[in-house]
Specification:
Strands 3-2-1-4-5 form a 5-stranded parallel sheet, sandwiched between helices. About 45% of the residues lie in helices and about 25% in strands. The chain has helices at about 15-25, 40-50, 55-65, 65-75, 85-95, 110-120, 120-130; strands spanning about 1-10, 25-40, 75-85, 100-105, 135. The protein has one domain: Rossmann fold, CATH 3.40.50. Belongs to the universal stress protein A family.
Length: about 140
């Protein structure tokens, strides 16, 4: 069982399978840190449409409600981090901070053309993280 788990969450996905795996990896005293990244594109689009970044963070936090509820249902303690920046970079930075034992991510299928050029978030994190990464389909 892991004591400190980093859970990368995309609010546009249900993340149910990843949450199932987190519950299997958790035990007494486990703390899960939920990380969501606001891309520069999303931040700029929000600001241009008149929505302040604080409101966008609040909206993202609301989007994480089902994730928090699932963790609570399993009796798992959690923290929430919402950061501005590239999801891959932010996840790798947090994973390599020394605070966690494992990263859990949902595998989101990128469009074939984009995946060929950019690679997926889960792939980049798996390559660059210094701790184990569990990618859940």
């Amino acid at each position: 069982m892991f004591k400190n788990i980093l859970l990368g969450v995309d609010t546009t996905l249900k993340n149910e399978k990843a949450l199932e795996e987190v519950s299997k990896l958790s035990g007494e005293g486990t703390k899960v840190t939920i990380l969501n990244a606001i891309s520069e594109q999303d931040a700029q689009a929000s600001i241009k449409s008149g929505v302040h970044l604080d409101k966008l963070v609040q909206k993202r936090s609301q989007g994480l409600e089902s994730t928090r509820q699932r963790l609570e249902a399993h009796g798992i303690k959690y923290d929430e981090i919402i950061v501005r920046g590239n999801a891959k970079e932010q996840l790798v930075k947090e994973a390599n901070s020394g605070k966690y034992e494992i990263v859990v991510l949902s595998n989101r299928k990128a469009e074939d053309k984009k995946k060929f050029v950019l690679g997926s978030v889960s792939h980049k994190v798996a390559k660059r993280a210094h701790i184990p990464v569990l990618i859940v389909k």
